[in-house]
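Quick review question:
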């Protein structure tokens, strides 16, 4: 409210206020946890061993408690996501014992020649698909969570970067299967903009969209 304040003083106080906002306890984003709970509930448990299903059900029950807890911390949400994801990945398929017989048979009418062989080079190259393919505008001090999905690249984790770290700050949130969640915080000044990129191992960086500070 001081009309005589210098620009230097205004900038200093703006920086102090931004730092104070950043230091506030962030309300954790539970979207990834909610999606994972839906995935767990859709699992056909009849195909898996009772022990591995019981472990998943226990992790699922805990995840629902965290999801419904308004006071849950970001660390608790992250822990619930990791535990439930691990329990899904550790599901063990039931094994069946083949019935033995005194004779064997071989189907010689359904063999494949060279044309039936598929080499790795014929497979589609791995890529990353973003949930935000268009330009985004963020007000200074606000944030946005990107969902980056790795296609045709099981086990490949993309690196997430922005063109200018003084405009956007980045944070890894969580991984659910081939979906990777990253958060950006708008710390630049209005009208500044920068690109959002991912890079897969052995590939060049891919530009997904541009974020402008509003």
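Suggested answer, residue by residue:
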């Amino acid at each position: 409210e001081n009309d005589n304040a210098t620009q230097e003083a205004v900038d200093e106080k703006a920086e102090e206020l931004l730092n104070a906002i950043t230091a506030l306890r962030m309300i954790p984003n539970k979207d990834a946890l909610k999606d994972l709970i839906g995935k767990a509930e859709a699992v056909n448990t009849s195909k898996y061993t009772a022990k591995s299903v019981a472990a998943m059900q226990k992790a699922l029950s805990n995840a629902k408690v965290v999801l419904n807890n308004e006071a849950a911390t970001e660390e608790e949400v992250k822990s619930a996501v990791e535990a439930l994801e691990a329990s899904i990945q550790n599901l063990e398929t039931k094994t069946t014992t083949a019935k033995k017989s005194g004779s064997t048979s071989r189907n010689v009418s359904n063999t494949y020649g060279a044309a039936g062989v598929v080499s790795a080079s014929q497979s589609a190259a791995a890529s990353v698909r973003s949930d935000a393919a268009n330009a985004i505008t963020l007000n200074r001090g606000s944030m946005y969570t990107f969902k980056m999905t790795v296609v045709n690249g099981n086990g490949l984790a993309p690196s997430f970067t922005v063109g200018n770290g003084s405009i956007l700050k980045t944070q890894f949130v969580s991984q659910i299967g081939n979906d990777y969640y990253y958060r950006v915080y708008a710390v630049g000044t209005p009208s500044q903009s920068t690109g959002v990129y991912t890079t897969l191992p052995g590939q060049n960086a891919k530009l997904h969209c541009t974020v402008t500070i509003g």
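Why it works: The first strand starts at residue 127 and ends at 130. The radius of gyration is 25 Å.
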